[in-house]
Amino acid sequence: MPAPTTSASAHAGVVLEAEYADARMWVQVGPAAAHGGFTVVRLQIATDSPENIDLAGVFASSGDLLTMTQIYMLSLAQEQAYLELTLKSGVGRYGVVQGKPVELFPIFGAVGPNVREVEVFLPNLGIALGVPVVPSEEVDFPVTEIIDDAGLVHQYPLQTAPLPIGSLAIADDGSSDTAVLNDQTTVTLLSDLLFAEDSAEEPQLSGQADDMLAAVVKQVASFPSGGTVSVCGYSTKNFYYGDVDGAAAEAQAVAERLAELTDLKRWEVSAEGGDYRTPRINERSRLGLWLDDEARAHINRRVEVVLIPNDPTEGETSDSAAGDAAPQTTGPVATGAQGVAVTVGEWGTLTLSMERVIRVGGFLVGTVKLGVEQALGVDVYPRGAFLLPDVAQGAHWGDCLEHACNLTLLNGSVRQLPAEYWEPGGGNDYVPLTNYMSDYVLPADSVQIPVIWPDVGGDTVTLDLPGGTNCEGEAIAARLTDIPVVDG
């Protein structure tokens, strides 16, 4: 079937072409119609498949096949993500087959009055850029009726407000990571590596402490206007017991050493012990259920250095230096266009490739193409193939074990992880803007894995999957080099 055409009209939408379930699919995305407190996006879906393609396998999570919760509307220019609201969309009842296109209407919160275009993240297919936003009276679909039929007034709470998009960069050995969200930079240092083993009574920094603190020093230097620095230690054995005084002493030791390593005269510095009942990973999280007490405590024993700069526009999102050497890889290496073949345990051979990334504002938008040489079957999905090592996974994404988390961009010796959004809920509620790897993905001959990363600069990028073992199994190790960056 030919792809839908796109006219020059502002109301035409954007056509996305992809492969899924051994077939081609076309999705005309948009326009996005603004009405009241909501935005309705039209998806017109067609395929050349002679067999029905279950759209729940494309857009829904395995936990709820009636939703389209894995679709996001984004305003990358404003660093905002919008959640899909129709929790009873019934997408699991829909399928698409050759000659019978389907229309879906995901609903999101209202965009700002000056937003004229948005991006739409479609799992397993790709990311539509430049989707026009128009008033509801200028579209040819019944916006008011769609909103009324969704029954949103009966849902509570309803997350209509946009969620902030942040970044997370992590050292290759997992010893430190740098997160940026809402103009706040947080460098987290693992205490088990930061302090010497024999410093129980009075904290003594380890031999590698200065290397770890270099991440903080670089961030301080990138904000010459200064601001506030809050150093907070967390010392814990489990959720019920921790040493607040000892954690405060560790924080003070870090603050004093930091003052020796860099000029803090424009910064207001404080140090304290944190509440051990606010762990990075707890025993009730998806990852925490897999780990024993000591493994969780290793992740949770930490010192966080929080920088709130006077001028956030001065800073950088990565703790890497341009000259730092890239980490070694244990997997195959090829250019992004050539792609690599990797064997995933007993499940067979997969291929990975990525032809380019697109620079959109302060982000890079890309699609990793996953090929499967033979159908693997939904009950032998290689869990763990796309996860980070447990320490890195536990930094922010302990409840995101179905996402493709290990698609990192190298930035010197540091791994830039996919961008993430933060949903306030009293916990570590970060979600990566990458594909939800449901059991329905791998049996396809070819699937797109859309990903959004913070911009690491340069004319080319290197995609690196670090491999290693994790709570669910063995991760893929592979590297794709010389991936061109084009302007969106």
Q: What would you say this structure looks like, in words?
A:
With 488 residues, the chain is mostly beta strands. The protein has helices spanning 56-59, 143-149, 191-194, 209-221, 244-261, 293-300, 390-396; strands at 14-20, 23-35, 38-47, 53-54, 72-75, 80-83, 95-96, 102-104, 107-109, 117-122, 126-135, 163-171, 176-181, 184-190, 227-234, 236-238, 241-242, 267-273, 302-309, 333-335, 340-343, 349-353, 357-360, 363-372, 408-411, 414-416, 420-422, 430-432, 446-454, 460-470, 473-487. The strands form three sheets. The chain has a 27-stranded mixed sheet that branches. A two-stranded antiparallel ribbon has the order 4-7. The longest helix has 18 residues, at 244-261.
Offer a quick outline of the entry.
The protein is mainly beta. The chain contains 7 helices and 31 strands. Helices cover 12% and strands 39% of the residues.
Keywords, separated by commas or semicolons:
488 residues, 27-stranded mixed sheet, two-stranded antiparallel ribbon, disordered N terminus
